[in-house]
Amino acid sequence: MSRPGRDDSPDRLYTLTGGRSRSGSDAFDLVTLVVTESDPTPGMQSEHVAILRMCRFPTAVVEIAAELALPVTVVRILLADLHDTGRISARHPRSAHRLPDPDILEQVLVGLRNL
Amino acid sequence: MTASPSPIRPSALALLITAVVTGAFCTVAVVSAAPGSRAVLGWSLGIAAVLLSAGAYAMTHTVLRNRVLRARLTALTAQIDAQEANAARRSADAVRLDAAHAAERKALIAAHAAELRRAESARAAALAATANAAGRMQALATGMLADLREMEHRHADEDVLGDLLHLDHRTAQAGRLADSIAVLTGARSGRRWARPIVMESILRGAMGRIGGYQRVRLHSTSDAAVAGHAAEGVMHALAELLDNAANFSPPTAEVHVYVEEVPAGVIITVEDSGLVMSEVQQRRAEQAVSGRSSDLAGLSGTRLGLAVVGRLARKHGLMVSFRPSARGGTGALMLLPHELITHVTPTNTVDPVTPAALDLPQDLAQDLAQDLAQNPKAAPEPEAAPKPVAAPEPEAVPKPKAVPEPEAAHATAAEPASETSGEFPQFGESGLPKRKRGRALAAAHPEGPDAPAAPARASTAASDAAARFSSFRQAVRANSPTPEGNSE
């Protein structure tokens, strides 16, 4: 995504989503892991194909968005479409609030550097 | 004249006088003659008198007749003279009038020529001004579209995005109108694309410029791409055809677009289920899109579309035709010739994005990587620290891959990140880019430059460590006001 808007593709984002700006489902947040469930079929939207190719291994939504160079919101709409047709499945990572305290992590980090 | 009455009456008078005079003379002569010769003398004198009378009559008659004829001759001659004079006068008049007419005509022609010249220059000036204005509007629209795209990437809020998309759509339509005016006024058309544009993008680009784009259904499996110099023209012409199809069909009807590769090139078919064009309309439309007439005189003001298509078709060698559609409406066919078509190699539709090259002091990153590679056991065992990704197959799993998001964050940096860190993406066996070991750890270091790391997926001990710390970063950043995946 260098110099956005200079010579990027002529697609506008609303044509990708058919004019929608919200996904209608909150199944996907930034770190939801997406796994492909079926192969792409001919005639599919190229973004859908790309997502299906990319998610053969579990991939986070935010990674998909970065890889497609699309806003996360748009990616979530695309994912919701695929999810509704059963082509992908979504899984949430274990919730983040059980992370150790950042202070401890930083201490570990410092310890590691001192190794 | 005096001779106008018939000469018979004076002749008869002369006859009578002669007859009376000669009769009296004869009678006297007969009476005074000897009785023996009276009969002979009487007969002789009688015959002589009759002859004399007849001669007198004839003479008088002839004389009078001659006089009448001479008078008529004189009259006719006078008449001829008068007519000749008249004719001469008339011809003189005609000559004078002719001269006047010629002068008048010359003046008129001069006036018309001057007017024509003035009109020509006015037309040229108006065209130039319009083309100039259209060009500026195009530039504005293009700039606005770029800005909007950037904003769409920056704002993740759904409401904001919705508004931005709305504005984007309006701007795209305004840009199309500016493009149309530019095409009609002969200005350069729109923007130029440096590389071939794949058919799907062409179709979507065209679709995005019309009001009823949500009713357009694309059916394309073609991997053809349109050469960059013609892509804008093709998109614009297609947008006009789509707009026609959407406008002249019921607001609920769908417009279907098919792409078909034929030996002559690629045919794009736009089918609606609206009004069927009558034969006359169809002929007029074909005439309009043939691009043969290039003057603006035939424009109706409200319907610019087909004229624009015609211009673009002539410029790029497209062939546009119409036929009744099997869907009940009209089908518009656009044939793109071979010269405009290239076939991009069917790689992944998504380019492998350069993975994040982190802004790290190079030595630090390498130190850490070396440390970890040499002594993987020294890395802390993965414990309760959540790993965002569970690797299904430890062997086949790609090495930790950086989220490309930081690239966007650093795109505005002074120099490309890959140069500062001296690292270029490497690709694992799965084809996905993998990251050097330990970079996430180094990136997570609080004293290092503030560079975000990525969720890691790995099973080796070293990359587990990296994964753990990238998760830490992830967790911290997930709550930050700026969402992931957006620049800045």
Automatic annotation (TrEMBL), chain A:
Q: Give residue spans, biased composition: Basic and acidic residues.
A: 1-11
- Whose protein is this, by species? Streptomyces hundungensis
Which InterPro entries does the record cross-reference, listed alphabetically? DUF742
Residue ranges of region Disordered?
1-24
Q: What is this protein called?
A: DUF742 domain-containing protein
State one Pfam family annotation. DUF742
Automatic annotation (TrEMBL), chain B:
| Stretches the record annotates as Disordered | 374-488
Which of UniProt's keywords are assigned here?
Kinase, Membrane, Phosphoprotein, Transferase, Transmembrane, Transmembrane helix
Provide ranges: composition bias, Low complexity: 442-478
> What highest taxon heads this organism's lineage?
Bacteria
Segments traversing the membrane: 12-34, 40-60
- Enzyme class name: transferase
Compositionally skewed regions (Pro residues) per UniProt: 383-395
GO annotation, biological process? phosphorelay signal transduction system
Q: Pfam families recorded for this chain?
A: HATPase_c
The keyword Glycosyltransferase appears for this protein:
no
Keyword Hydrolase recorded: no
Q: Which InterPro entries match?
A: HATPase_C_sf, HATPase_dom, TCS_sensor_his_kinase
Biased composition annotated in UniProt, kind: Basic and acidic residues: 396-408
* Protein name as catalogued: histidine kinase
Species lineage, top-down?
A: Bacteria, Bacillati, Actinomycetota, Actinomycetes, Kitasatosporales
